[in-house]
Amino acid sequence: MFLFMIMLIPAVLVFCGIRAGDKTEVAVTVSGAVTGVLVSLLVAVFSFRHRIPEYSFAANFLYYAAEEYIVPLLLLYIAYFFITKDTVEFRIRSFFPVTAGFFSVYMPYCIISASGSVFSFFELFVKPVLFLSMLALASFAVFYIGKQACGKNIKRMIAGCVLLAFILFVPPFLNTLWILDVFAPAMYVLSAVYAFFAACLFFSSIMHTESID
């Protein structure tokens, strides 16, 4: 029952690692996964994740954004970016390996710990796809922002930041629609569209590799 949820992100990471053939990238992925284990343990010890959702869109959106999607992602990557001594280009390119490594552990923990004994189709299949799509789309946005920053194109860099904010906004928004049982058909359609764009960008990246400089 949990196989797809647990294996989706690791399977993509293995594929990307084999394709890249870069041991340094593998080390970054492992460091992200280890961080995911540590954070999950800390959350398990110091918090209670099984909650009764409020019937409030704002309250649920803020919960998912802060606990599962946006805040963990930003804190992890910002910490990695400023702690590591690698080149700026490598740190930018490492966005997907480090964050996907982290969420390959943290995402299943969030889903399993926050649910009861019965798991829905959304939790087992749609939510993992949303997480993976968010990481894939955000990695392209971060790359674009870094490229524009190196070229000192402020307007395009700001546009990239707006795009990144929108990419990060969508998953907790859709998760909130699901938890409140609002516009369920639209939620599934929007999830499919979001995943489709992520898949298109992912496969286009396989066809060519571009440098930041």
Defining traits:
213 residues; mainly alpha; 9 helices; 0% strand; globular
Structure, explained:
The chain is mostly helical. Helix content is 81%, strand content 0%. It is built from 9 helices and no strands. It has helices at 3-20, 23-46, 57-67, 70-83, 88-93, 95-114, 121-150, 154-179, 184-207. Helix 4 packs antiparallel against helix 6, helix 7 (121-150) packs antiparallel against helix 8 (154-179) and helix 8 (154-179) crosses helix 9. The radius of gyration is 17 Å and the shape is globular.
Basic shape: globular
Number of helices: 9
Main sheet makeup: none
Cα distance spanning the termini: 45 Å
Concise synopsis of the structure shown:
By secondary structure, this protein is mainly α.
